From TrEMBL:
Superkingdom, taxonomy of origin: Bacteria
Protein name: Zinc ribbon domain-containing protein
Protein's organism: Glycomyces niveus
Amino acid sequence: MLPRSPYSVRPCTACGEPLQATPGATVLACRSCGTELYGRPDKRRLQDPDWIALPPKPTMRYADDTPEALTAPEAIVPFGIRPATAKRILRRWAQRPWWTPRDFRRIDESESFRGAYLPFWVWRARTRSRYKAARGEYEWSQGGGGRVRGVKWFPAAGAVDRDFAAVPIPATVRLEGTALAELARDWSLGDAVAFEPRMLDGYWTQGYELGPEVGLELAKARMAAEVEREVRARVGGDEQHVPSIETVYAELGYRLVLLPVWLVSYGHRGRRRMVAVHGESGRVVGERPCSAVRLAFATALMLAVAGAIQYFGF
């Protein structure tokens, strides 16, 4: 299910930079901080023919936050970090640096602490990309003000074949895009096992908010970025101009995989914030609040030390 509001030009929810919308796009990515914003596609937007060709998936009711039948998970990655361990990791993380607020240092005792499974679309595809490009090589000549650099261009063309075995795409907007990207770095999809509903007992399970069609759009964008990097490496030279890459997808498929995380929320300056502990690696992702009093004291102390050093000539 996608958010109801259509896209418009708006500031990034994380850093405030303006996001430029592309007609028909369902995903906006902030160029400054990487946060992704999602919206409902235009009703007149043409559907991806690769998506239309895919067979439908079975559905079932399993999410705690919606009674609706959703695409059934095909795999799940079990928790490798136990609750007590996750709480110890949280406490150590919350106590550094020392100017975090006193209450925040006990975040591991919060009643909001819970194990959860986050939904990810994991895509696979074999791609063949034909490209037309130009290789630029620097050449130097003597000008009136000294040496002048020019670029001599040579045509280049070819094809790149890639095999993408697993491209994970978050299907949730409950955490910011940068936090999800940090978490996604550590999940071992090879540890996934076949999904069984009983494995959700005792954990909160979130239904996906971004459908698989949006997931395909994002997955193709990530595949395209990797293909372009390889094209530029093949073209070589000092600069590359790549105006055209045409990609065909084969053996395209996806599955919904549930990935483990320990979640806890806290309030700061009138806003609820979320901290996550990776359910396999123990990586903590979140934003530490800052105590204004402690930070002011630390600043005053540093200024006093700097003043003493200058006064006594150390």
